[in-house]
Design a protein that fits this description.
The complex is a heterodimer of chains A (276) and B (400). Chain A contains 12 helices and 8 strands. By secondary structure, chain A is α/β, with parallel strands linked by helices. Chain A has a single domain, classed as TIM Barrel (Alpha-Beta Barrel), CATH 3.20.20. In chain A, helix 10 links the parallel strand 7 and strand 8. Chain B starts with 12 loop residues before the first strand and ends in a 5-residue tail after the last helix. Chain B folds into 2 domains: 157 residues, Rossmann fold; 215 residues, Rossmann fold. The longest helix of chain B is centred in the first third of the chain and has 15 residues. Chain B has 16 helices and 15 strands. Classes of the chains: A alpha/beta (276), B alpha/beta (400).
Chain lengths: 276, 400
């Protein structure tokens, strides 16, 4: 069983929701990321999504765009992101790490070259924003053959057919984009998410993580309980952005926010809030 | 090359190029667009309305002009100019925006968005939006806003909102990123009019089909003027919409040579250029696989060209396919050479070309003398130079 499958099974058994932070590798500097990942694990996160910086992040809002630009200014790349993940793995063999990024850096490495490198770095899942399943068969097969889960997106306007397709090609979990828009956008409609999740649930057994528009403990808690977990990205990266002259402060604020979300998620379901 | 050309396949592939590489939220609107396009492509009423707009609003057919003096001067091929510069709004861009706007209207969309580089596509979009009473937002890189301020004013005058994009390199590619972000956010009421033969399927095929009127007319006009097909075609290539518009109807006519002219900026060897077909590598950007300007890590490189309309790191996937199959030849022209083309046409024929089209003129300076006097060369004069007057005056040290 993959680390992701095992993690979601463990969470389901204890009745808990997955807390999944997203940070961009190498933002604000390459040395920041590995200690930040360990600190997030201490704060109680379950899976880490590591953003691969790209020059043209078409699906991202301004906060994550700027994170990419800061990382690229330090010559961050897919190769160096894999090095960061491998470095993290040296002292944490249990927390699943998912790479999230765009296709062109993978194309530049070739699919097979990337799949091999991801396996060497002990990556658990890969979410490629601009690689829908129709075009992604070759890449997904190479990843799956190496025990890496290809993770796919679902959107508010995805049809039932689309949900079934993602169920067939995806593994690990499905990432539900809770609103039409880019990362970090506002106005999340809980009733809409709830309705859509019912439709998704009816067509897949895969865990569903919900992201886009999650800002704080309150929204995280509300949203997480509609699925199996919640992804929070822009709100974390904003902490980095407001503390560019003091990365330690950024780290502390991120840990504080994640700790409060962890508490809210676990209290939200009452009795089963087990400590890590 | 097979005799029958039937590209792309139903999922938008031109061999290994093209396709649909977008985030999941864009899949439903792309499917909706493709369905509408396939339907109206064959709808006699739609075609009749489009033809009437092209005739009475755009001013088609555009002339095929025999540049006799320039041909004599160069001492080789007979040069004919396809006068897309005479279209309403001053370039070939309107052929496509008229078509897509009619599609938007039939699909019930109330809001139009577009990206623009030189501003010609933005102006052509703002124009059709004004005519149909649709809300219009145009994304334009902040660098381009500064160097094409005349077109910015035209768009505003036409009622469009022009958004200066400050991210990345602040040019055309960043405008496209921002337009895609807008589309993802406003998919329900918004139609995205892409101006070139790039983007996810069906855009490369759809824009080509709307621009193919250029080649269809040119073929007929050439037969009328010379009694036979041309020997060579020349067009500038940024994203490649004017070039594919001219080339497409000639693809199966194997005797007709095709030359696409990319922008070499300071020179391909310097790395400061916009010539992905000549000096790039295949990759994926803006929804399709094609030749790109990217580094070893797959990050997109900033491009350089004197002409904002050619300042783009990718190129339409069909051009990538035509390059690989050898059906078309892709060459490049530096900023300096483009200026020679600009002055040559201005002085020899009294026609001031756009800086984009000047790249095609500059290549003709090289190609025409190598051809026989009984041979015919058609150059696509894709736009007029009015928008570049400030840039040119500044280069000459003249204050307007």
């Amino acid at each position: 069983m993959s680390r992701l499958a095992a993690k979601f099974e463990e969470l389901a058994q204890s009745g808990r929701k997955a807390l999944i932070p997203f940070i961009t590798a190498g933002d604000p500097s390459p040395g920041f990321t590995v200690p930040m990942m360990h600190a997030m694990v201490k704060a109680g996160v379950d899976v880490i999504e590591l953003g691969v910086p790209f020059s043209d992040p078409m699906a991202d809002g301004p906060v994550i765009q700027r994170a990419s630009e800061r990382a690229l200014a330090h010559k961050m790349s897919l190769r160096r992101t894999l090095e960061i993940a491998a470095e993290f793995r040296k002292t944490d063999q249990t927390t699943p790490v998912v790479l999230m990024g765009y296709l062109n850096p993978i194309e530049a490495m070739t699919y097979e070259g990337f799949a091999n490198a991801a396996q060497r770095a002990d990556i658990d899942g890969v979410l490629t924003v601009d690689l829908p399943p129709e075009e992604g068969q070759e890449c997904s097969a190479l990843l799956k053959a190496r025990g890496i889960d290809p993770i796919f997106l679902l959107a508010p306007n995805s049809s039932v057919d689309r949900v079934k397709k993602m169920d067939a090609v995806g593994s690990g979990y499905l990432y539900y984009v809770s609103l039409k828009g880019v990362t970090g956008a506002g106005h999340l409609d809980v009733a809409d998410v709830e309705n859509k999740l019912q439709q998704i649930r009816a067509n897949t057994q895969l865990p569903v993580a919900i992201g886009f528009g999650v800002k704080d403990a309150e929204t995280a808690n509300t949203i997480a309980h509609l699925g199996d977990g919640v992804v929070i990205g822009s709100a974390l990266i904003s902490k980095i952005e407001t503390n560019l002259d003091n990365p330690e402060q950024a780290k502390n604020e991120i840990v504080e926010l994640l700790t409060s979300i962890r508490q809210a998620l676990d209290c939200g379901l009452g009795t089963e809030g087990v400590q890590e | 090359m097979t005799e029958k050309y039937n590209m792309p396949d139903e999922r938008g592939h031109f061999g290994p190029y093209g396709g649909i590489f977008v985030a999941e939220t864009l899949i439903p609107p792309i499917q909706e667009l493709n369905a509408a396009y396939q339907k109206y492509l064959k709808d006699p009423e739609f075609i009749a309305e489009l033809d009437a707009d092209l005739k009475y609003y755009v001013g088609r057919p555009s002339p095929l002009y025999h540049a006799e003096r320039w041909s004599r001067e160069l001492g080789g091929a007979q040069i004919y100019l396809k006068r897309e510069d005479l279209n309403h709004t001053g370039s070939h861009k309107i052929n496509n925006t008229v078509g897509q706007a009619l599609l938007a209207k039939r699909m019930g969309k109330t809001r139009i968005i577009a990206e623009t580089g030189a501003g010609q596509h933005g102006v052509a979009t703002a124009t059709v939006a004004a005519r149909l009473g649709l809300e219009c937002v145009v994304y334009m890189g902040a660098v381009d806003v500064a160097r094409q301020s005349l077109n910015v004013y035209r768009m505003k005058l036409l009622g469009a909102k022009v958004v200066a994009v400050e991210s990345g390199s602040k040019t055309l590619k960043d405008a496209l990123n921002e337009a895609l972000r807008d589309w993802v956010t406003n998919v329900d009421n918004t139609f995205y009019i892409i101006g070139t033969v790039a983007g996810p399927h069906p855009y490369p095929a759809m824009v080509r089909d709307f621009q193919a009127i250029i080649g269809r007319e040119a073929k007929q006009q050439c037969l009328e003027a010379t009694g036979r097909l041309p020997d060579a075609l020349v067009a500038c290539v940024g994203g490649g919409s004017n070039a594919i518009g001219l080339f497409y109807p000639f693809i199966e006519d194997e005797s007709v040579k095709m030359y696409g002219v990319e922008a070499a900026g300071d020179g391909v060897a310097t790395g400061r250029h916009s010539a992905p077909l000549c000096a790039g590598r295949p990759g994926v950007l803006h929804g399709n696989r094609t030749y790109l300007m990217a580094d070893d890590d797959g990050e997109i490189i900033e491009t350089h060209s004197i002409s904002a309309g050619l300042d783009y790191p990718g190129v339409g996937p069909e051009h990538a396919w035509l390059k690989d199959t050898g059906r078309a030849t892709y060459v490049n022209i530096t900023d300096t050479e483009a200026l020679e083309g600009f002055y040559a046409l201005t002085h020899m024929e009294g026609i001031i070309p756009a800086l984009e089209s000047s790249h095609a003129m500059a290549y003709a300076l090289k190609l025409a003398p190598t051809m026989g006097k009984d041979e015919t060369l058609i150059i696509n004069l894709s736009g007029r130079g009015d928008k570049d007057m400030q840039t040119m005056a500044k280069r000459e040290g003249i204050e307007l």
